[in-house]
């Protein structure tokens, strides 16, 4: 399978560099380039790429609004934010807008390509520095409790266990090995968890797991 990607960034040199880098990947192709959010939304709707690589600050329409419009259109395209801004406000806004991941532009070529693959496969992609602060923030806000959060009431005990492992960053294969079940069974559990909790992807599942105190950051 070839992963099609739309690259949206208002800086031509960066945009073209990302495009060249992705075109060198054996399993990727660039479906189009956009210099602002308006063009990004148009390209995504027209070409239906698997992943949209989205900058945050762009003229005419920023990446956050573009992401909201792509998600609202009900497209299968996953949005991966790629930005220089290692800022909590932007991270929270991106997740609320429906971004499947948040990566910084100082990431390596390997990290970028792998993040795109993970985003397409439903993995949770957050820059390490972002993950640390995000989870610390949830840990500070969470009230200690032995009572299951009401948002998890729809889940079975097995699904709660799978959610815990997702929040620890495990892949479906790793969860299958941990629970000694088939990988396809894990995929079914993950799908049901997302449906029951009204979540779009694993990134939102990870955030919710920490937010409700199901798991806490390791110190």
The run of helices and strands is EHEHEHEHEHEHHHHH
CATH-assigned homologous superfamily of the largest domain: Response regulator
Helix content estimate? 40-55%
User: Averaging pLDDT over every residue, what do you get?
Assistant: 84
Strand order of the largest sheet: 2-1-3-4-5-6
Class per helix and strand makeup: alpha/beta
Note the main sheet: 6 strands, parallel
The number of distinct helices, counting runs of at least 4 residues, comes to 10
Level-2 CATH architecture of the largest domain? 3-Layer(aba) Sandwich
- Beta content comes to 5-15%
CATH class of the largest domain: Alpha Beta
Structure description:
The structure is a single chain. The chain has 219 residues and is an alpha/beta fold. The protein folds into two domains: 3-131, Response regulator (Rossmann fold), CATH 3.40.50; 138-211, Arc Repressor Mutant, subunit A, CATH 1.10.10.10. It has helices at residues 12-23, 37-47, 63-72, 88-97, 109-120, 128-141, 157-167, 172-179, 183-197, 202-211, and strands at residues 3-8, 28-34, 51-54, 78-83, 101-104, 125-126. Helix 2 (37-47) runs parallel beside helix 3, helix 7 (157-167) crosses helix 9 (183-197) and helix 7 crosses helix 10. Mean pLDDT is 84; it is low at 142-147.
